[in-house]
Every structure is written in C-alpha cells, then in structure tokens.
C-alpha cells in the first residue's frame, strides 16, 4: 500500500488536496492519504508510519 502524508496548516487546502488525490485516479494501486497540520505530530507520524511520499507546505 502506498502511503502519502500531507502537511499543511490550512484546513481547506489539506482537505481539498486529500479529496483530489482520493478521487483523481492518479495512482493505479491502493494508497492512503493522511493530512496533518503540526510539524511535531508530522515528525512522529513519519517515524512510525513511514510514508512513501511526504507533501509539505511550510509557508502556510
């Protein structure tokens, strides 16, 4: 399973991007998209979950 972590402080951008990835059919296989708004939580999530792709908007 392909794991994607999205880090963005803006709730609307994060949920919109998650919805776009989930409904776009970009990836042929199964994948999971998780969105976070906190860098400290993201660090712990990366260490435990080990995503294949991390997308981050650090400017906010």
Briefly, what is this?
With 60 residues, the protein is of the alpha/beta class. The protein has helices at residues 11-24, 39-49, and strands at 2-8, 31-36, 53-57.
The fold-level CATH name is: Rossmann fold
Radius of gyration: 11 Å
Identify low-pLDDT runs: none
**Largest sheet: spatial strand order:** 2-1-3
CATH architecture: 3-Layer(aba) Sandwich
The largest sheet is:
3 strands, parallel
Percentage of residues assigned to helices: 40-55%
Count of alpha/pi helices: 2
Helix/strand-derived category reads alpha/beta
Distance between the termini: 29 Å
Per the principal axes of the C-alpha atoms, what is the gross shape? flat
- What is the ordering of alpha helices and beta strands? EHEHE
Would you tell me the overall average pLDDT? 89
How many discrete structural domains? 1
DSSP strand content: 25-35%
What is the CATH C level class, in words? Alpha Beta
E-strand count: 3
Could you characterize the architecture of this molecule?
With 60 residues, this protein is of the alpha/beta class. The chain has a single domain (2-57), classed as Rossmann fold (3-Layer(aba) Sandwich). The protein has two helices and three strands. The chain has a three-stranded parallel β-sheet, sandwiched between helices. α1 links the parallel β1 and β2. The model has no long low-confidence stretch (mean pLDDT 89).
């Amino acid at each position: 399973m392909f794991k994607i972590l999205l880090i963005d402080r803006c709730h609307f951008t994060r949920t919109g991007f998650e919805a776009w990835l989930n409904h776009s059919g970009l990836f042929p296989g199964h994948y999971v998209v998780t969105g976070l708004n906190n860098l400290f939580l993201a660090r712990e999530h990366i260490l435990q979950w080990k995503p294949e792709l991390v997308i981050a908007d650090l400017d906010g």
